[in-house]
Amino acid sequence: MSGHTLPCCKIGPSILCADLSCLADECRKMIHSGADYLHLDVMDGHFVPNLTFGHPVVKCLRPKMPDIYFDMHMMVQNPEKWVESMADAGANQYTFHVEACEDIPALCRKIQESGMRVGVGLKPGTPVETILPYSDLFDVVLIMTVEPGFGGQSFMEDMMSKVQYLRTNFPYLDIEVDGGVGPNNIDVVAEAGANMIVSGTAITGASDPSQVIALLRNSVENAIQKSQLER
Ligand code: DX5
Ligand code: ZN
Fold first, then answer.
1. Residues forming the active site
2. φ, ψ for residue 91, nearest 5 deg
3. Which domain holds residue 40?
4. For the chain, how many structural domains are there in total?
5. DSSP notation for 105-156
6. For each successive 10 residues of the chain (231 residues), what is the average pLDDT?
7. Does the annotation place 125 within a ligand binding site?
8. CA nearest ligand 1 atom 7, residue
């Protein structure tokens, strides 16, 4: 379902390690610092050994920032269960994990019919080939560069071969990376071809988040420009 316009750079901070008692303020801070969207991590204590929040929180957040794109990273078992509730809460993108899903095409259709963009997530151990048969059905592929469950882990550079493969074969696809991404590794991420950049602690833990967001954007935009010149 990816279109025929070349993907552009989007920076989506993960607020997982921010002060969740002030969620709306933390989200606003990210937007004012130059974020393009918010990456909201939902964990159920089953698919990953950790808990965060669900659709009731998203529903409260939505009226406080009506125009912001919410990417729901659903680290949950039975992801088909929460599609309607997340759509009703105001989510824009529903990114589920293929490892947690029994019927990938049915779930992709359900998400699309509910008006959200379809994201498919791959844990580090899951080969990219798993999703190739369904490439007409999703909008975004999320390549995890850590084991999902916790913020602040180390970036796995060997995942870049998945990003490279996808970019080569799907030039118009939105490719998102998540886990340990920050100024130290953004150049390899950008060179590999990712255009949607999730970054948690590198942004929320920085004294000046806007500087980090600008740095990440600069690297990705340069790589996109370079690849367009080479086409
Ligand atoms: C991990 C989450 C990530 C993570 C990002 O399971 O999906 O979104 O919190 O945070 P950093 O960038 O700190 O790894
Ligand atoms: Zn995430």
1. 41, 178
2. -70, 150
3. 10-230
4. 1
5. HHHHHHHHHTT-EEEEEE-TTS-GGGGGGGTTT-SEEEEESS-TT-SSPPP-
6. 80 96 98 98 98 98 98 98 98 99 98 98 98 97 98 98 98 98 98 98 98 98 93 76
7. no
8. 148
